[in-house]
Design a protein that fits this description.
There is one protein chain. The chain contains 14 helices and eight strands. By secondary structure, the chain is of the alpha/beta class. The chain folds into two domains: 240 residues, P-loop containing nucleotide triphosphate hydrolases (Rossmann fold, 3-Layer(aba) Sandwich); 75 residues, Histone, subunit A (Orthogonal Bundle). The strands form two sheets. The chain has a six-stranded parallel β-sheet, with helices on both faces. A two-stranded antiparallel ribbon has the order 1-6.
Length: 330
């Protein structure tokens, strides 16, 4: 097994728009507005929106929005299935080519930094994973405990073990899997993610807001999800036979809803926990995107920012064949 595996053939940088940023910042709203003006199709780079039946807590685009503008890689797999950054990169690159072949603009939008990075790099250390190896490591964790696997990682790659929480079985298994598949420590592989992109985009924007405003939007977003039936959605998933141990049900909101249904938190406590952990996640997203060498940052504010930014984007896309100097949109 080589250190990396290719995720597909190059894609023309002159007809690709990437919109990224933390949860709640407004990137999906901007993508829809551009798509309506330009006649585009959207590819969603979100590690939870790929799962069918996880609708409310993942903030998926509505059915009406998906009828109006095609959205790809939403509802791509069942909650019981595994979906990796490598799988996303492969699928997304294929879809981008198909959209371009139709003469339309692909818009890649999302907040899952590793998905976007895998797509941009054109390769991902460790490739698509090894289901048999992953199953063996899960069986070892079930027998000996997650702490035993974390200790093994600590002996072989102390830097990775220090970065990964001892109870985070998914990331521990991924790190051990990389070790066994590539022969390289994940802490050595990880910095290579931040080389210049193998696949540049016509425009790659990261949206951000002032912290207090972003946090208010996150609070409202979480409250709307809770009031919109998140608890009933999780209850229905459990009644249909989904295990509460599924990785998909450990996502933001779903984990807190499970705690509420299990009697460990009241509804008010679960909502507060969801809001708090979502803010922490937004901070991690921003940290991730700050290391992205190709991104232009745009700070937005209030509710009337979309039309002028759409105008600026469309103006830039009109001259996308010209050499770009990396200047921010004005």
């Amino acid at each position: 097994m080589t250190r990396s595996e290719q995720c597909g053939s190059p894609i023309s940088p002159s007809s690709l728009l990437i919109l990224a940023g933390p949860t709640g910042v407004g990137k999906s709203e901007l993508a829809l507005a551009v798509a309506r003006r330009r006649g585009s199709e959207i590819i969603v780079a979100d590690s939870m929106q790929v799962y069918r039946s996880l609708d409310i807590g993942t903030g998926k685009p509505s059915r009406a929005e998906r009828r109006e503008v095609p959205h790809h890689l939403v509802d791509a797999c069942d909650p019981t299935e595994s979906f990796s950054a490598f799988a996303f990169a492969e699928r997304a690159r294929q879809v981008v080519g198909e959209i371009q072949a139709r003469g339309r603009l692909p818009i890649l939008v999302g907040g899952t930094g590793l998905y976007l990075r895998a797509f941009l790099r054109g390769e991902l250390a460790g490739g698509g994973g090894d289901p048999a190896l992953r199953a063996r490591l899960r069986a070892e964790a079930a027998t000996h405990g997650t702490a035993a696997l974390h200790a093994r990682l600590g002996r072989r790659d102390p830097a990775s073990a220090a970065r990964i929480h001892p109870g985070d079985l998914f990331r521990i298994i991924r790190a051990l899997e990389l070790l066994e598949r590539t022969g390289e420590r994940p802490s050595v592989l990880r910095p290579n993610l931040w080389d210049r992109p193998a696949l540049p985009a016509a425009i790659f924007l990261v949206l951000t807001r002032e912290r207090d405003e972003l946090y208010r939007r996150i609070d409202r977003r979480c409250r709307a999800m809770w009031q919109g039936g998140l608890l009933d959605e999780v209850r229905g998933l459990l009644l249909s036979g989904s295990s509460p141990q599924l990785r998909s049900l450990q996502a933001l909101g779903y984990r807190q809803a499970l705690a509420c249904l299990g009697g460990r938190l009241t509804e008010a406590e679960a909502l507060q926990a969801m809001q708090r952990t979502t803010k922490h996640y937004a901070k991690r997203q921003l940290t991730w995107f700050r290391r992205e060498p190709a991104a232009e940052w745009v700070t937005v504010a209030g509710e009337d920012w979309v039309p002028p930014l759409v105008d600026a984007i469309l103006h830039r896309l009109g001259g996308a064949e010209e050499k770009r100097d990396g200047s921010a949109l004005g």
